[in-house]
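Re: your question from the hallway

Yes, I did run it. Sequences:
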Amino acid sequence: MQIVILGPPGAGKGTQSLLIAQKLGLIHLSTGEILRKAVEQDTELGRRAKEIMQKGALVPDDIMIAIVRQTLSSEEMKSGFILDGFPRTLNQAIALDKILTELNFNDLRVVNITANDDELVKRLMLRGRKDDTIETVKHRLEVYRKQTSPIKEYYEKKCRVYDINGIGDINEINDNIINVLKEPVTRPPVKARNME
Ligand code: AMP
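Structure:
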């Protein structure tokens, strides 16, 4: 199973992804974590990403797509993974489709965690990460609205997207996600071919 977890910053994607990965034996892949490690280790990627992240902006698509392509190509991903923080733009979503096809992954599930802005700002300010100042938080929410939220519609044309209310008890939210992942996959019907 391959899972994409969508939702605004602060919705709980990281927390929920970790729990899902543990319960379903999937690899948790957080592009934000990859970038934060690169910044910490002061690698070339880290130096490029640092300022962008501090502003709450997005790291360029080509960089992110290359990271995800390389990571998903590794043998250990064959047992399934959950993508947290990617895709974040339509371009990334289109590139991900291509990568999944190339690597023969064909069981994609999309979960969208929802929460209102007041709750998101409150949570992000409590979290206290370096990129969680009030200006950055506001900018991240704006970037999400403009660049990331259209991804949901993109996926809705391809497969079912499960909306999950991200407000409430962490374990209950997680149970709700696990339950929808147990549902059989419904795909758009294949058009009947003309009989000869
Ligand atoms: P996150 O941990 O998912 O909140 O990501 C933290 C920051 O890393 C974001 O605010 C972006 O600056 C950057 N980032 C993470 N994932 C992506 C991505 N897929 N595309 C562009 N930037 C990203």
